[in-house]
Structures are given as C-alpha cells and as structure tokens.
Amino acid sequence: MPLSDTLARVDSDLAAGRVPVARQRLRGLVSSFPNDLMLRRRLAEVYRLYGEPAEAGRWMYLEEDRDPAETSAFEARYGTAVQRMRALAWQGSESLAQTAFAGEQLASVRAACSDAMGHSVDWDTVPSGEKEVSERSSFADFLAGAGCLVAILAFLAIWVNGVVALFD
C-alpha cells in the first residue's frame, strides 16, 4: 500500500478514535521508512495521545523543536548510547538526515556509542549491547548461579523424598 494511502488510513483511524491502530500503522511506516522525519513526528504525536513522553521524545529526538521534557524522558528510559542508538532505529549514514540538526544528533549518538563500545559503529550494524551485558557485576552473576543451585537442590530433595516415600 502506498505511503499516502496508509497516512490517509492513519488520519481516518485517529478521527474515529482508533489510536492503537493508528500507532501500529505509523510504527510500520517508520519501520519501512526509518529516515522520514515527518513519519517520526506523526508517531510522536500519537504517543503524546497515550501520555508516553519517553516514546514521544524517542521519535522527536531528531527534531530541533522537540520538547525538552520528552527528550529527558527518552534519555532516562534509554540510558546508554547503545540503547539510544538501537531505539532511534535509523538506517544508513547521518548524511541521509533531512535536516542539519538531525544529522548532528545522529552523529552525536553514534560517536557516543562508538566510545562506549570501544570501536567504530555505524547505523546499519547497531550493536546488540554485548559489552553492556558483559559489564554486569560479578556479584549479580554469583547470585544468579547460587539461586539456580538452590533450586536444583530443592528439586532433588523433593524427588528423593518422594522416592523414599514410595518404597516405604
């Protein structure tokens, strides 16, 4: 379905109060056209209807006239550069941005992500966050392992108790 037809359906959905359907259509459009700032803006407007400032900030992040409170909510929800880079879901280089401000924002996020990862990254190979996962505390790893061990021992104790009871 052409972009204009889908946008007409979005308008119809919004007029009829079908906000979730409009949001889903816009999410699909942004997925298909990730570099279209107008679609991102429309999606942010729908998230405002939901009262979701972090998501509105996410989709307005590349706009100069963005709301500072929404931007802060987005940055708080997606606390690292890697998370922000994934959340922005841009494709291609910053040179594809329709405005200088958007290009600067994209370059800034990519540079911060490259610094965090310790190597150069680009928008077409957004990091999966392996470094973030590996930086988890060893104490948390210990607790997870201890919890698994306790669960296995409890299961074995119940099983042994059941077998003993069966033969008594």
UniProtKB/TrEMBL annotation:
Cited InterPro entries: DUF6584
Keywords assigned: Membrane, Transmembrane, Transmembrane helix
Transmembrane parts of this sequence: 142-167
UniProt name for this protein: Uncharacterized protein
Organism whose genome encodes this protein: Streptomyces zaomyceticus
